[in-house]
Amino acid sequence: MMRLADTRFHEEAPGEIPDGHIGAVDCGHLENHAGIGYSVLRVADLVIIVCAATNGDVERMEELPMDGFLKLAWERKKDPTSSRPKEWVLLVRVQPGTRTAPEGIREGLVEEGWNVFTTMIPSVQKYAATGEGLPIHAAGSHFDELVTEMERRGLISK
Question: What domains does the chain contain, in order, with CATH numbers?
């Protein structure tokens, strides 16, 4: 694991990920870490916006506003002719056993034009306890379901 999520990420990180691997970057809350977010997005191939399945987090995402932030990030890309990466919302911290409220949130985001994964990551201690530098083994987990959905949608290859 590299700790390169800073405002120079776009200069330092490319080439650090071995072929056949996927690099994931958590740039923190964009309203607090805009410089890091802009730098990471300048070299991103796929953007996954992680949003808790709550009305409060959806409102925070809309108030930023996320789409405006992403538009500014694409304008700062090194190669302005490159295509804008696909953007997907991943609903997380879904309370186990609930589907109605998260599905309503998902449908609302889709109606607003967002791509939203059908996979939702539940709020379970197994994921909450994962710290920096500790790998998440996808096999058999909810992340396995996410990877499968991403492959099915053509966002990543097998």
Answer: 9-152 (3.40.50.300)
